[in-house]
Amino acid sequence: MDIQFIDPINLPSWDEGIRRFPQASFFHGAAWAKVLSESYGYRPAYLTLMQAGEMTALLPVMEVTSFITGTRGVSLPFTDYCEALTPNREVSRVLLDVIKGEGKKKGWQYIELRGGSDYLVDAPAYDFFYTHKLDLSPGTAQLFKNLRDSTRRNIRKSEKAGLDVRFESTLDSLKEFYRLNCLTRREHGLPPQPWAFFENVFKHIIQPGDGLVANVLHENKVIASNVYFRFGDMAIYKYGASDKRYQNLRANNLIMWEAIKRYAEDGCRQLCFGRTEPWNEGLRQFKAGWGTEEKTINYYRYDLARHCFLAGSPGTPQISKNIFSRMPLPLARAIGSVLYRHVG
User: Do 244 and 103 meet the contact criterion of CB atoms below 8 Å apart?
Assistant: First the structure.
């Protein structure tokens, strides 16, 4: 066995190597590593097990260095889930032991793993989220029948309103998303991600053909927008935003249905709806209405000074919500451009 730390950013064959793993996702790929590294300065420390020149196991980690929140290893920052790609528990534990040693050597405070329940069976979860995935193989006719009644009604309502859904891969379409994203993040009490991050999303994901922006227009005005990624035959709904003044038109329902149809007809076998916080019952019910399968994904945090996994206490970020929901957008954007690299 040959255990190596590899930076996937400059390896043209990286994605070809991870496609051999059935459980590989978009987040294991080189494009996402480039976005995170260039946007926030994170350093990749992807731990691999090589046998006969081929990668047989992977634990992707990035080093987050911050004078505010400390230095740690995260698998991976701003990522919904990123399971280690390993053949069994024994190999997973070997990789974990190696990354612990690397973290101690580099002075990390802790290691955060986003997923890993299959091999961390005795470890307490530090946080947890829901994930929803939709099997696209039944085809669009059956998928529509599988929708919750209220979801079908909302789709029909938005169609009758004459809303126009456009799938695009231009920088201008992403700018429309970002405009709505700033409004939506403020509504949720969060600062928006920096525009430089989305510029890198465009550069490394959308422009090469691995992502799309879906915009909904009403009277020639974009009122809702989603960003989707794709890896092989798996699509991911990564970001969504809308203008709440047009909420009654149910644009969010139409945009998701059009994306489901597009990816199903284009040969995708699955659409992942991303993660949902346990306290966000409204979003959880929205995703459940599409006939998705719901699962729980645990996040784990290993404290390198105490040599143990920490138990957390997830809750609603009420304090930040009260602050940012009242903040002018220019100030929120400025704070977001500084803050995000520290919270990854």
Answer: no
Strands 72-75 vs 110-114: parallel, antiparallel or unpaired? parallel
CA-to-CA distance for 249 and 268, rounded, in angstroms?
28
Give residue 315's pLDDT: 54
* Structural tokens at position 45: 């420390």
Distance from the first to the final alpha carbon of the chain = 32
Q: How far is CA 324 from CA 188, 189, 336, in A?
A: 8, 5, 10
How far apart CA 297 and CA 117 sit, in angstroms, is 8
Q: Is the dihedral of CA 138, 141, 144, 146 positive or negative?
A: negative
Work out whether strand 270-276 and strand 127-135 pair parallel, antiparallel, or are unpaired: antiparallel
Q: Exposed/middle/buried for 222, CB within 10 Å: 0-12, 13-18, 19+?
A: buried
Are 223 and 251 in contact by the 8 Å Cβ rule? The answer is: yes
Q: What is the CA radius of gyration of the chain?
A: 20
CA distance 277 to 164: 30
Cβ contacts of residue 329 below 8 Å, gap of 6+?
Answer: 182, 183, 186
The lowest-confidence range among 61-65, 223-227, 338-342 is 338-342
Asked whether 76 and 82 are in contact (CB, 8 A), the reply is: yes
Where b means 16+ CB within 10 Å and e means fewer, 295-313 reads eebbbbbbebeeeebeeee
pLDDT in tens, 199-254: 999 999 999 999 999 999 999 999 999 999 999 999 999 999 999 999 999 999 99
* Domains within the chain, CATH numbers bracketed: 2-122 (3.40.630.30), 131-295 (3.40.630.30)
